[in-house]
Write a structure and sequence with these properties.
Helix content: 55-70%
Structural class: mainly alpha
Low-confidence stretches: none
Shape: flat
Number of helices: 8
Number of strands: 2
Oligomer: single chain
Radius of gyration: 29 Å
Largest sheet: 2 strands, antiparallel
Distance between the termini: 91 Å
Strand order of the largest sheet: 1-2
Order of helices and strands: HHHHHHEEHH
């Protein structure tokens, strides 16, 4: 929740942090998938943390050298990527059990999902809180200053979770209804109501 509350006040901040998380997720997943056979089960979590910290240090140095303005805006939140449970979870659940190529695409998917969430939060909060988009004055006034406050981060995250949960429930209901409908067998009328068969040339047996 720290990045959602602290850094998602603008689209650009959400985009930069989302790209950083995408980079760390992909690189960490590929690294763990590559060395998973050499990791002792008792030290797997510390190994994940050290791997994530290594790639966070890389992106931290790159941003500070080539994008100092964005780095200054994000500040401590870049270093907090080390503590993101989403990255550690994917390393434990997927990367340590699959190949490098599968882990690469898993990292891409998870990173893009986080990137989408951060950009969406930044879009809502920047537009409704400051009336701007990417630094350009769009509305000419501040509609709801509440969205520029840290509390709005929790509100927006909760609203997005409610929307996604509702969509998932509707999708599961449609999928279940479709499965039930397809499982019903259509029995033709001639099977349900067969015509009587006339027996010609057969005489009843006499005992």
């Amino acid at each position: 929740m720290c990045p959602a509350v602290g850094i998602s006040t603008t689209v650009m901040n959400g985009l930069m942090l989302g790209v950083a998380v995408l980079f760390v997720q992909v690189c960490s997943s590929c690294t763990i998938a590559l060395v998973k056979d050499y990791i002792h089960p008792r030290i797997r979590i510390p190994t994940y943390t050290l791997t994530i910290a290594t790639w966070v240090t890389v992106i931290d140095l790159v941003l500070s050298a080539y994008a100092p303005v964005a780095y200054k805006a994000m500040g401590i939140f870049i270093k907090l990527i080390v503590a993101f449970a989403i990255i550690t979870m994917r390393l434990e659940v997927f990367a340590c059990k699959n190949t490098v190529d599968k882990s690469f695409w898993d990292g891409i998917g998870m990173g893009l999902g986080f990137l989408f969430g951060m950009v969406t939060l930044g879009f809502i909060r920047e537009l409704l809180g400051m009336g701007t988009l990417l630094g350009h004055n769009v509305l000419g006034f501040r509609p709801l200053l509440f969205f520029a406050l840290p509390l709005a981060g929790f509100f927006c995250v909760g609203f997005m979770m409610a929307v996604f949960n509702y969509v998932e429930i509707v999708f599961n209901r449609m999928k279940k209804a479709k499965a039930v409908e397809s499982s019903k067998l259509v029995i033709p009328d001639f099977v349900r109501y067969p015509e009587p068969i006339e027996l010609k040339g057969l005489q009843p047996s006499r005992d």
